[in-house]
Amino acid sequence: MRKGRLNKPMAEVAQRYSASVSFDWRLYPHDIAGSIAHAAALAAAGIISADERDKIDNGLRAIKREIENGKFQWDESLEDVHMNIEAALTKRIGVAGGKLHTARSRNDQVALDLRLYVKAEIAEIGARLRSLQTALLNLAGQHVDVVMPGYTHLQRAQPIFFSHYLLAQIEAFERDVERLRDCRTRTDVLPLGSGALAGSTIVLDRQSTARQLGFARVSQNSLDAVGDRDFACEFLFCLAMIGLHLSRLSEDLIAWSTSEFGFIEFSDAFSTGSSLMPQKKNPDMAELTRGKTGRLYGNLMSILTTLKALRSSYNRDMQEDKEALFDSVDTVRAALEVFSAMLPEIKIHRDRMQAAAGDPNLLATDLAEYLVKKGAPFREAYETVGKLVAHAAKTKLPLNQIPRQELKKLSALFDVDVANVFDVRRSLASRRAIGAPSPENVDAQIEHWRGQLVGGRGNLRARRRIRRTAWRSVPT
């Protein structure tokens, strides 16, 4: 590659500094697939013979097998994955190997490899998201009847089903699936044929190459195609959002596993002990996931910062996109795998959850809405119930045990039926609006996701029977 224009060999220190093969070797299956398709285009254009194409094809496939078997020797002096494979091919098949780079540049070659890599990883990470959603769904189905407090500001707010909480996580991860699907659309563009920045006087059938490599579209501007890393930025954003959702899930589980909450317990297989305190059981997998999310954010900011000041077309700065990309992929892959394995082993302490959900203050909003249904303006009802809560705190009486004569002092609208407000089952059953946590809504959502994720339907009637039986123990 230095022959012709450059007369002196590259300084050893510069060679070490600029080499990328130590990390971009991971692109080899995509680089080889791209080269096989390019050879087909060269043969179709009459630039190489059918025999030369066969030699290139067979040689590249043999190199791929060597790499997969760990027998290929990567040479740092050849800088990157592209030159290593091309040099090995030329050494193996001779002159035909030297013809492969006709009408292409490493600029469009690496753009192609990255797009193929991102497309493949979108599929892989999408599959792992589905596995995690299935684990959450199974947990929801197993604990469909468990009532717990919902929280805002880390304060008990209103009662919900634990299954409603789990379904909320499925919704968040579904947005991640959708984002990946959208990202794939913008990644699914063939850049090969753009050359260094201005294409080539040797015109190849790019549409045919796109079909062979599975691309939906062909890039329409060679200058843009070699400098475009929007798809990589978007993919890193998608991975950062997955990290955000995993981190928030981790934070909930970490808090709920403490003695102060006692709602859940991580299995021994996904916990660690303390080097000093024998009694400790630490939620390290969830904590590590929460911490690794910072790396995902950092990788996104890294590539955005690298790209922000680059002139149009390709610049060597773009070499810095790969380590961030590979690291985020590895991090998200591992986190999704761990959570999919960890969630089925979590122990749910339903009695602790349901006891916490028995706090009558969780039904303060229901009490205000009781007054609204009697004709009071909401703000007036809100103030009335606020005074009742303050009275309950002062007298140390639970909200549901304040005598009715005291209630009447604040509002004549309170009647004997006010006792019905403090029935958790009645409260949840009345939350029937779309998206709210009524038993019917939760069951319907479990059925919906079961159809989406596992291709089948559960036994809705049996689940409702289980719920009716279990609800006899729910505090009222």
List the helices and strands and how they pair.
Blueprint lengths: L11 H7 L2 H4 L3 H17 L5 H19 L12 H13 L1 H5 L6 H37 L4 E6 L2 E7 H26 L1 E2 L15 H8 L3 E2 L3 H6 L2 H27 L7 E2 L18 H24 L13 H22 L4 E2 L1 H8 L6 H10 L4 H18 L8 H7 L13 H6 L9 H15 L6 H11 L6
Parallel strand pairs: 3-4
Antiparallel strand pairs: 1-2, 5-6
Tell me what you see in this structure.
Helices cover 61% and strands 4% of the residues. It has three domains: 12-102, Fumarase/aspartase (N-terminal domain) (Fumarase C, Chain B, domain 1, Orthogonal Bundle); 107-136 and 166-204 and 213-354, Fumarase C, Chain A, domain 2 (Up-down Bundle), CATH 1.20.200.10; 356-473, Fumarase/aspartase (C-terminal domain) (Ribonucleotide Reductase Protein R1, domain 1). The termini are far apart. The mean pLDDT is 94. The protein is mainly α. The chain is elongated. It contains 20 helices and six strands. A hairpin with a 2-residue loop joins strand 1 and strand 2. Strands 1-2 form a two-stranded antiparallel ribbon.
Give the C-level CATH assignment of the largest domain: Mainly Alpha
Overall geometric form: elongated
Percentage of β-strand residues: under 5%
Total number of domains: 3
Distance between the termini: 79 Å
Oligomer: single chain
Strand arrangement in the largest pleated sheet: 1-2
How can the largest sheet be summarized?
A: 2 strands, antiparallel
Structural class: mainly alpha
CATH architectural type of the largest domain = Up-down Bundle
The named CATH superfamily of the largest domain = Fumarase/aspartase (Central domain)
**CATH level 3 topology of the largest domain:** Fumarase C, Chain A, domain 2
